[in-house]
Amino acid sequence: xxxxNFKLHSAKELTPxxxxxxxxxxxxxxxxxxxxxxxxxxxxxxxxxxADFLTLALRFQQLIVLYESTVKSVLTQLEIFQEDFxxxxxxxxxxxxxxxxxxxxxxxxxxxxxxxxLSLENIQNSLNDIAGVRVICPYLxxxxxxxxxxxxxxxxxxxxxxxxVRSPKPSGYRSLHLIADVTVHLSSGVQKARCxxxxxxxxxxxxxxxxxxxxxxxxxxxxxxxxxxxxxxSEMLFASDLKMQQIAETLGVFEQINRGPESIKFFx
Length: 268
Description:
This protein is α+β, with helices and mostly antiparallel strands. The chain has one domain (about 5-15, about 50-265): Beta Polymerase, domain 2. Helix content is about 40%, strand content about 20%. The chain has 6 helices and 6 strands. A hairpin with a 2-residue loop joins strand 5 (about 175-185) and strand 6. Helix 5 runs antiparallel to helix 6 (about 225-250).
């Protein structure tokens, strides 16, 4: 996920970033023709008239409201966890949360990359990260504590887990990714929508944000030497995370938090 698209939330502000990219120029490949965004294979599925267009637009808007509601549900539950720890006088494993809804152009480009025809059904069935939530935690132990809390939430069904903390990407990227189906209660009934949750320490998030900015400035291309330096920076920050974890344990920071089976004790 692009860190520039995430909106930071305070404990009381849970409104996700809307699906309005503002005045944004289309990339050359997106501005070829009125139907270009839909892809050549979907030309026959374009709205035939105003009525069809309005129907499609309304369905798309309803779909986005579902994803926005999903983000709100996750953020609200995370805030409940925060307040529960705080009122008990325990260590709070959540530093901050942010969220984003994937923009329409990004949705189209990702479906194109997958070679999937653009349709509302394929948007729901082929993309796991239209709704995205990022959770920043103080310590390594907290990543797995929050993970266990989310999995225990009855409206949260874990679909896939990618642990880039234990097994970082070749670039040096570290994070714990959860793909989940979240139950949302709407006026029309109960529905489920997919959401991606990223769990990072403060150090991991700092590295990921700066690394993305550096690659963006260099248009995605960096030398082997620079790439190696970025990996070394990631390793140094991870070593710092481990040391801060040990200090926190020595001071008894985690004594009031139940350690689940996914505890960071794996690293010892």
